[in-house]
Amino acid sequence: xxxxxxxxxxxxxxxxxxxxxxxxxxxxxKMRISREVIEKVENVAxxxxxxPNQLAxxxxxxxxxxxxxxxxxxxxxxxxxxxxxxxxEAKKYDYKVVYCSTxxxxxxxxxLINMLSQxxxxxxxxxxxxxxxxxxxxxxxxxxxxxxxxxxFPQHDEIPAVLVDNYEGVSRGMDYLLGKGYxxxxxxxxxxxxxxxxxxxxxxxxxxxxxxxxxxxxLVRIVPYNSDHEAALTEVVKLLSSAGTDVDAVFFxxxxxxxxxxxxxxxxxxxxxxQLAVLCFDDNDIFRLYTPTISVIRQPIExxxxxxxxxxxxxxxxxxxxxxxxxxxxxxxxxxxKRESV
Amino acid sequence: xxxxxxxxxxxxxxxxxxxxxxxxxxxxxKMRISREVIEKVENVAxxxxxxPNQLAxxxxxxxxxxxxxxxxxxxxxxxxxxxxxxxxEAKKYDYKVVYCSTxxxxxxxxxLINMLSQxxxxxxxxxxxxxxxxxxxxxxxxxxxxxxxxxxFPQHDEIPAVLVDNYEGVSRGMDYLLGKGYxxxxxxxxxxxxxxxxxxxxxxxxxxxxxxxxxxxxLVRIVPYNSDHEAALTEVVKLLSSAGTDVDAVFFxxxxxxxxxxxxxxxxxxxxxxQLAVLCFDDNDIFRLYTPTISVIRQPIExxxxxxxxxxxxxxxxxxxxxxxxxxxxxxxxxxxKRESV
DNA sequence: AATCTGGGCTAAAACGTTTTAGTTCTTTTC
DNA sequence: GAAAAGAACTAAAACGTTTTAGCCCAGATT
Lengths: 342, 342
Known about the structure:
The structure is a homodimer. Chain A is an alpha/beta fold. Helix content of chain A is 45%, strand content 15%. The model of chain A has no long low-confidence stretch (mean pLDDT 94). The structure holds a DNA duplex.
C-alpha cells in the first residue's frame, strides 16, 4: 500500500492538483473554490487517509517547521529537562524539535550542525562547545537564526544567548556559605575555557576577596573534562579527605560534579553538615532525596527553555528582514534552595 | 548568502547537473567520468561549501536515512539512556534518530506517529501506549518497519518487539526476597493494561503461590497513571506506614515508583533494611547513592537499544521483500543487583 | 565506407508540494 | 450589445535531487 499523494486525491475527486492543495491549506476560500468542491475534496482526502509529505512541502517552501536542538548530553538530567521544556514550548508555536548530543566534542558538534543544516531545519538552539563561533556565524549568514543556551561567546555578541546568571548565582551561594561562617570553602569545577564556567569561578574568587579571605589553590579542584568516572572520583576523594580540618565546606559547580561529590562523601563517611557543608550549582533528584538533603543553586530550567524558544521564534518570524534585535545575553537569576547540607 | 545547490556547482565547473550528482555520490567511476572532471567537480564543491539538501534527496529516493524513536518520556532516566544507546547504535548504520515523548498518552502517540510519517522516516522504534496496534499495522502496511521496545502487544505477533524478560526479572527478585525470609512483601505498581506490567504483576503473584503464601490485596498498591506526584506519594506513604509490622519488604515495579518510594520512606523515617527491605525494578543513580544503597533488578538498557536497532536495520534492508522474519518478542534477561536494602 | 563499440558525458523525467499566472465561463455595467 | 468584472477553477513552473536513457565522438571492425 503506497502513500496517497495530492494527485491521487485530485484524480479521485475529479479536480486539479492545485485545487486540492488550496483546500488542504485552507486557502480554498481565498481562491474562490466552491462549497461543494471543498467538501468533495475534504471527503476524498479523509477517506484515503491523506497526509502531506513534509519533505516535498519543505523543498517547495523552504520551511520545515523544525528546529534543531543541540545539547551536551541528553541523558543528563539538566539537559533532558531543558529539552523537554523546549519541545513543549516549540509545540505552542507549531514547531517540531529534533535533538542531539555533542558529548562536548567540538568535531561532533560541527557534524551535528551539518547534519541539521542538510535536513534544512529552520533554526537552531545550541549549547555550544568551544570554537563553535565560526560555524554558528555561517548558519546566521545562511539566514538561519541561532540561539545559544546555557553558554555563550563573549566575543561573538551577534549571537543571542539565554542563560542563567552564573556570576550572580555563585555569588549568592558563596555569600550564603560565608554568612554561615564557613571559611575554608573548597571548589570543584570542570576544566573548560568556556565563559559560563569562568564566570562561576570568578564569582567564587571575588566572593573570597570581598570577605577578605585569601584564596587557597589547594582548595580548588578542576577535573579534566574527559576524565573517566573513577579518576574524577579519586580527585574529589583526595580533596575532601581533610574535611573537618582543612576544609569546612564544598561548592560543586555542576550537577554532575555534585553527584560525584556525594559518592565521594559517602565513601569517606563524612558527616554533613557537621564536618562539611555542601552546596551544588544546579539541582538534581538525588539532592532532594539524599540524607541529609543537599542545598543547591537552582537554575530556572523551564524559563531558560521558554525564553530561548521565544527568542528564536521572534527571529524566525523576521528572517531576511534586517531587524535590530538586541543580542545581549539574556541572564535569568538562579535561586538558592536551602536544604539540610549547609 | 544562499545555500549552494548542485546546479550552482555544475555551472561553475562547466559540467552538467548529472555529472555533479554522480561525483558526489561516488558513482563517477561507474559512470565513466574522467579523472580530471571528477577532481574539478570535487574542488568546486569543496570551495563552495556544498551540502546536499536531504529533503530533495529524500523526496527523490524515498529514503531519509532517519528513524523515528517514540518513548514514553525522554526526561526519565531509563528512556534517556535507552535513547542515547539507540542513537549511538543508529550512527553505526548511518541512520539519524529523531525522538519524541508520548507521556503515555494514546492520542499524543498517534499524533507523533503521524508527524514522523509525514516527515518520511524510514522506520520506527516505539514504546507503545495502549491501543496503538492498529496505527502500527498501518505503518507496516506502508512498508515502514516498526520495532517495539520495552512493551509489546501479545495479540499482535506480527510486530517485532525487544524487551526485558519481565516475568523472569520479577520472579528473580521475589525469589531473592523470599529466600531472605521476607513474607509480607508489598508491591507498588502502576495502573495499566499493558502486557509488560501484567507480566510483572503475574510474576509477583506466582512467586507467592510457589512459596505457599496467600496473596494479600492490602499489600498491593496500583497507582493511577496520571495521578500527580503528591497523590501518588500519599498512597505509598499509606502503604508503608505499617512497615515493620504488617509489611516487611516492598517491591517497586518501576524506576519512577522506586524514587517515589524513597521519598515516602524518608518521610516516614523507616529503617532499611531493618524495618523494611526494598527492591526496585530498573536501576537509577539515586539507588546507587542512597544510604543504604537500594537493590534492584537491572534492565540491560544498552542491549535493548542495540538489539532493537539491529532488528530494525535488518528489516530496513529488506523492505518490500517478503522475508520471513521471526517476530516472537526478543526477551533479554535482567540482572539482580544486590545492594544494602535487602 | 559503413557499422559497431565504448568512453565520456548530458537531457530530462520524476519525487510531492506550493503558487503564480492564466483560462473559461457567467454576470454585471453602461 | 460590447466591454468589464468576477467566479471557479487549472496549467505549469519551481524547489534540489537521482537516475534512466541517450547523444556524440573516436577508434576498431568488417
